[in-house]
Every structure is written in structure tokens, then in C-alpha cells.
Design a protein that fits this description.
The protein is of the alpha/beta class and about 260 residues long. It has one domain: Rossmann fold. The chain has 9 helices and 7 strands, in the order αβααββααβαβαβαβα. The chain has helices spanning about 1-10, 40-55, 60-65, 95-110, 120-135, 155-165, 185-195, 210-225, 245-255; strands spanning about 25-35, 70-80, 90-95, 135-145, 170-175, 200-205, 235. Strands 3-2-1-4-5-6-7 form a 7-stranded mixed beta sheet, with helices on both faces. α7 links the parallel β5 and β6. α5 packs parallel to α6.
């Protein structure tokens, strides 16, 4: 585990310190949210509102309360070509409805900023480092990644994913398929083959921005309960058919032209 921690920290561009507090929780959950400029400001705003609404929703709170311990540890950050500076909301324990509302209010108060490029690998490295460096002991450890395109910046995505999986972390995806992403077979398939990993991991596709809030809520409830919902994309057995470097190749082609 110490070797894995060192490697994850080396992949993460944002320093992460172990935090005080800690203790046993049902789930350690990191929300890693894409704010790249491939989405316009209105879409990023609706995405933010979707997370706030989901965190305050009674269905989410009930999922927390019905866990074995009845509490989770949750954190949040935004990413694009790298982790967005000052976007990290550190670990908070959610045990009551007020805890969930307080965390949602912290998120709602954050300014909305967008950045260039897409580095899913940086998001995974940041999320995994935040999990292994904290002082909580979750029965499950999950990185929840939302994004609207393939990795095209920083390290390749597959090694980052595999290192997180070695640390026992599950990675789930929310694929924002509002417009063509350039990933053959669809962004949900790219996420299934190249991004998600771990027992029960899944991708939830979103085709319309107005469906985002419901999708986020479904995803959070699923991750807390550990039950895979219907109508999701899961990792297929065997060698993936997707080129996991497709984003890097497309960016290089654009740069060359």
C-alpha cells in the first residue's frame, strides 16, 4: 500500500495531506467533476446545480442513513487539463440531512471556472491520493468521475486507473454525451474500457443536460448502496476494443494541422 501511495502521489499534481478526524465509514467517496471548456458555461452551471440538488435530495440522504454505519466520508474537486486550483473541498462526514446540506452549500458557493484540455488520469490520481492519504476507513472506496471527452492531456489514463485499482479503489463514470466526443463507439464505451475499474464499477451515460441532476442522484445512491443500477454500461471481460489513447492521438493530429 505504501508503494502504491507513493506512486499515486507522484502522479497527482495537487499536494494532498492526511487530515485529522477519520474513523470508520460506509464509503469514502470522491466526486471528480469535469469543467473543461468543451462544455459551455451554461452546461457547467447546470452540472454544478445537479450535484447540489443531488446532495440535498432525500433519496441521497436515505441511502446514507440506511448504510451499515449510517455515515460516509465525501470530498470534491474539479478538473480539466489538470486539477483546478482551489477547487478541492476536503473530506467531510455526512451522517445527517444537515451534514449533506452543509456540504452542498460549500459546493454551491464555489465560483464556476473552466479550463482547457481533459486529463482523466490527473483526476484519478488526485482522487486516489485523497483516498489513500486520509484517515478514514471505508468499507468501500470510490472515485466518481464525470466527464465529456477522452483523456488528451497528462499521463495516459489506463496506468492511473490500474494504480488506483491496486489500492482497492473502485472508479465509476458519468459520461456526458451531449455532443460527439470523438471516441469511436461512444464516450460511454471509452469510459467502460479505459476509465472505470474495480468490483461492480459502471458508467452512467447522460444524453441530455436536463437529465443530469437525476443521473447524478442515481449514481450517488448507487455508489453508497453498492447496488448496480439498470441501464448502465459495465466493463466487459477480456481485452478492451477501444483505443485508450484516442484522445491523445486526436489532440496530436489537431496540433500537427
Amino acid at each position: 500500500m505504501l508503494t502504491t501511495l507513493a506512486m499515486l502521489i507522484s502522479l497527482s499534481a495537487t499536494p494532498v495531506m492526511a487530515q485529522a478526524g477519520g474513523g470508520e465509514v460506509d464509503v469514502e467517496l470522491v466526486l471528480a467533476v469535469d469543467t473543461s471548456r468543451s462544455m459551455d458555461y451554461e452546461e457547467v452551471r447546470i452540472q454544478r446545480e445537479g450535484y447540489v440538488e443531488a446532495l440535498k435530495h432525500r433519496e441521497f440522504i436515505e441511502a446514507v442513513e440506511t448504510g451499515l454505519l449510517g455515515k460516509i466520508a465525501i470530498s470534491y474537486f474539479e478538473w480539466a487539463g489538470d486539477v483546478v486550483p482551489n477547487s478541492v473541498i476536503g473530506w467531510q462526514v455526512i451522517e445527517t440531512a444537515q451534514d449533506a446540506i452543509d456540504f452542498a452549500n460549500l459546493l454551491e458557493a464555489r465560483p464556476i471556472n473552466t479550463q482547457r484540455r481533459t486529463s482523466i488520469s490527473a483526476a484519478i490520481a488526485q482522487g486516489a491520493t485523497m483516498i489513500v492519504a486520509n484517515s478514514y476507513r471505508g468499507m468501500r472506496q470510490v472515485i466518481d468521475i464525470s466527464g465529456d471527452g477522452p483523456n488528451n492531456s497528462g499521463n495516459p489514463v489506463v496506468p492511473a486507473r490500474d494504480k488506483a485499482m491496486e489500492a482497492g479503489i473502485v472508479i465509476n463514470g458519468l459520461a456526458l454525451m451531449l455532443r460527439p466526443s470523438g471516441a469511436p463507439g461512444g464516450l460511454d464505451k471509452y469510459y467502460a474500457d479505459c476509465v472505470i475499474g474495480g468490483p461492480g464499477s459502471f458508467v452512467l451515460p447522460v444524453h441530455k443536460i436536463e437529465d443530469f441532476a437525476v443521473a447524478v442522484r442515481r449514481k450517488l445512491v448507487t455508489e453508497i448502496s453498492g447496488i448496480t443500477p439498470p441501464a448502465t454500461v459495465q466493463k466487459a471481460a477480456g481485452v478492451p476494443s477501444t483505443d485508450c489513447l484516442i484522445g491523445e492521438k486526436q489532440w496530436q493530429d489537431l496540433f500537427d494541422r
